[in-house]
Each structure stands twice: as C-alpha cells, then as structure tokens.
Design a protein that fits this description.
heterodimer; A: mainly alpha; B: Rossmann fold; eight-stranded mixed sheet; 8 helices; globular
Chain lengths: 201, 280
C-alpha cells in the first residue's frame, strides 16, 4: 500500500471531530515535542506542493507582465508539475478535499514551506537557467525537510513514509539537475539593460 | 472513501478573489504576496466579493484594488482613508479595506491617517511599507532611514523616521499589527483578525522593494514573531512599540474602543431630502 493511502484510516477517525473555525493558520516555527503522524506527514506534503505551485504561478504571471515569455512558460510548467504532485497526494490518500493544517501548525523551518520559492528571487531579465536554479534549491530544501521529518519520527511507519517522500524529492533534484545540463547557463552581463527601469542611479 | 477533517477550501477558493488583471509590479516585489494574503483572508472569512470594497490611493501598492474581484476604488493620492471612511459610513454592511504604501499613507495622506485612527470607523487599513517611493523612481519616504543614500538623496535625508505604529496608537487606532509579505499565510491570518476586530484596524506590512531597496531582501532573515502577545493597555503597547526594532510581527495592540457609527434614521432622512433636490 502506498504510504499516502495509509493516511486514510487516520482521517476516518479525525473526520468525526469538530471542524476548526480558523482556516488560515500561521505556520508554527517551533517543532512539537512528539513526532508527526502519517496524516500530519501527508498534510505537510500536500501543503508543501500546493504552496510551491502557487508561488511558481505567481512567478509566471510576473514574468508574463514583463514580457519574459520563455521564463514565464518554464514557471508555468513548474507550477503544473507541483500542482499535479498535490493532486496525486489527494488521490493517493483518498482525501476529497485538501487537509486541514495540523493542530500544532506546520513544522516549516522558515516562514513558508521548504519548496516555496523565495519571492524576492526574480529578475525581469532572468533566463530559464536561473529559474531552474531556483527550482533546484527548492527541491533540495524539500528533500532535506522530509529527511528531517524521518529523523524525528517516533514510529517506524511514519519514518518509512517520510523516507519515501524524501526519496521522491531526491528524484526531483536529479531531474532538475538533468534539465539544467540541457539548458544553457547565462552569459556574463545577462542582466544588462540599456534602458533600465531604475534609471536614476 | 474518507475525507479530511477540516478542509482549507471554502465556498470560494482564494483564486476566486483574483481578477483577470495581472499585476504589473516588479518581479520580486513583496506586494504579490500581500495580494495573495488578501485573497486567502477573504476566502477564509467566506466573504462574497460584493461584500468587500478595497479602496486605495496612488502608488505601486495602490494598484491592488484592480487585482481583486471585489468592489474597488483607485482614488486620489493620500486620500484612500477619506474615501474608505465615507464608504463605510454610507455602507456599513460592506467590509472596507483601505490599502496603499508608506508615501501615500504617511506623507501625502498623513493627516487622513491621524484622523482615521481618531475616528475609529470600522475599517481595515493595510500599508505596504517599503521605505521608498517606488513608482516615482526611488525618492525617500517618511519611513526611509535618515542615512539611506541614493542619487536622489546623496547625503541621506537626515530626518527622523516616521513611526506609524506609535502614531496610530497615539491617535486612537483600535487594532495595530505588523506583518511581512514573505509570510503570506501569517499575513492572511493577521488580516482576518484585523477585519474581524471592530473599529479602525491598522496593519503595517513590511513589503520589500527589490528594485530601489534591494537590501530589503534581507528582511526575511530579520523578521520574527513578536516575543509577547497583544496587549489592550495602550501605555504598555506604546513602550513596546517605541522600543522594538521594526521587525516584530504579529498583533501588537488590541483596544476596546467603541467604533464610530454615524446617527441613523435622522441622518438618512436628511440624505434623502438632499437627493430630492437633485432630481430631474
């Protein structure tokens, strides 16, 4: 059975509990003393993929607005991939709706999920290679995140599931690295603009 | 088939609050994430778009009404709060959110800011503060550091920095919070609290301008949750706000002053009488 499907039993129990009123929950930055449950692990995985997809979609819009169509298309592709990963989690767990955040909040190290790109990382003249550098960084962080969840797991099952997720992210790292070998790196002066928007300095 | 206990999706997902107009902010601008926080908060509060009005002044961040599907008013420089106050008084059923930047809100609109805090009308004011006038090419704003050097301020301004949270507290704002655009989920939660809080709610959002203030990329490593929870004691809040370094995020003050509401009945009748005079 897929590790994601294993979360469904926990859901059947938790479904009977009252629905919390607050739907948007600030990520908690402290790590709870106990390890995650399978359901919490998959809720993290879903949130991680969805937030990554949303950020890449925002990046695509920003690039389209600045007529950088090649990079916009690449970010659109990355958004589709991450969104598909999120959908796969719903399918494999049998969840018909996105899961609620864990009661203790998400265990992200920073303010956002580890696969969510830094919103300040863009440049209007950036090239596809730059976008892949961003994606590689995010996949590596996601890999590290699941590794750390596996290390903090208090049950063998959750540890195995987290290791499986980490392995998936490691595969994504390899795919991005391979993609980068097929993508020309930027030449020096790639960000030179003879008519820059910042024309006062 | 099993389902999750508490789905994050509501009747309308956050995407439903985004209009067809695509933002034209610079790539890397913090305002994208503020827009995302707006839509997440509206979705989580389950507000219908026609129940919301987003009112702004002029500036990069003041474009935000165009990017949401609610009612919007992109008004006059510095006058977002004047328009928002009038709207809320005339249409108390609406959720009114005023939005803008630090130049629009604290300089051109500084007087409106003071008196909106004092009046305590039930609306939310979100200021995307990047310590610079971005739209007009990088002039220093009221929140620019005195020693920030640029071609337009080669020796720095040498001026004391405006402290909007302290001013808001002194002028009577009922809810004061600081957020960070690099934390859109946390910011959405703050906006929800601000909208729910009765009276004038002021949310200062640190929102980097990567074009004119690229060093603000470092803010993500400097912000932190406020070490203590919100207080309802204005004197204690003042001490905290005066001594913080500008990077504590969260709800910082939550007062209990009754929101201003104009007289109903008699006032409404007068408006109807006034309108009669203009009938053709």
């Amino acid at each position: 059975m897929s590790p994601r499907k294993a979360a469904t039993k926990a859901d059947a129990v938790s479904r009977r509990k009252a629905r919390p009123r607050l739907r948007v929950v600030k990520p908690a930055r402290r790590v709870a003393p106990s390890g995650p449950t399978t359901r919490e692990l998959m809720a993290h995985a879903y949130a991680l993929e969805l937030e990554a997809a949303e950020r890449y979609a925002e990046f695509a819009e920003a690039m389209e607005a600045h007529n950088n169509r090649e990079v916009a298309e690449l970010f659109r592709k990355l958004a589709r991939i991450e969104h598909r990963h999120a959908e796969q989690i719903l399918e494999e767990t049998g969840w018909t709706k996105p899961p609620a955040p864990p009661s203790t909040g998400y265990r992200w190290e920073g303010l956002e999920a580890p696969e969510t790109a830094d919103f300040t990382a863009l440049h209007y003249l950036m090239q596809p290679y730059h976008a892949l550098v961003i994606a590689l960084h995010n996949e590596r962080r996601a890999h590290k995140f699941f590794q750390s969840l596996a290390a903090s797991a208090t049950s063998d099952k959750v540890r195995r599931d987290a290791e499986a997720m980490a392995a998936e992210e490691a595969e994504h790292v390899r795919l991005i690295e391979a993609w980068m070998t097929r993508t020309p790196p930027p030449e020096a002066g790639w960000d030179h603009d003879p008519d820059p928007p910042r024309n006062v300095d | 088939m099993t389902t999750a206990t508490a789905p994050s999706v509501t009747a309308r997902p956050p995407q439903a609050y985004k209009s067809d107009y695509k933002p034209i902010w610079c790539p890397g601008c913090g305002d994208y994430s503020v827009l995302s926080a707006f839509t997440k908060a509206f979705a989580a509060l389950e507000l219908a778009p026609e129940q919301i009005a987003v009112v702004s002044g002029i500036g990069c961040s003041s474009r935000i009404p165009a990017y949401v599907t609610s009612y919007g008013f992109h008004g006059v420089h510095g006058r977002a709060l004047a328009a928002a106050t009038g709207l809320k008084v005339a249409r108390p059923d609406l959720t009114v959110v005023a939005a803008g930047g630090d130049g629009d809100g604290y300089s051109i609109g500084g007087n409106h800011f003071l008196h909106a805090c004092r009046r305590n009308v039930d609306l939310t004011y979100v200021v995307m503060d990047n310590h610079v006038y971005g739209m007009t090419k990088g002039q220093p704003s009221p929140t620019t550091e005195p020693d920030w050097v640029s071609k337009l301020s080669p020796a720095g301004t040498g001026l004391r920095v405006f402290h909007p949270l302290v001013v808001a507290l002194a002028a009577g704002a009922n809810f004061i919070a600081r957020g960070f655009s690099g934390d859109p989920n946390g910011l959405a939660a703050l906006l929800m609290e601000a909208i729910r809080a009765p009276g004038f709610s002021f949310v200062e959002v640190l929102s980097p301008c990567v074009t004119y203030r690229p060093e603000q990329r470092e803010w993500k490593g400097q912000v932190r949750p406020a070490p203590v929870g919100p207080t309802d004691d204005a004197a204690r809040a003042a001490r905290r706000l005066l001594t913080d370094d500008g990077f504590n995020i969260g709800v910082l003050y939550r007062g209990s002053r009754k929101p201003f509401q104009p007289p109903v009945g008699k006032g409404a009748a007068r408006v109807a009488e006034l309108e009669k005079a203009f009938e053709l």
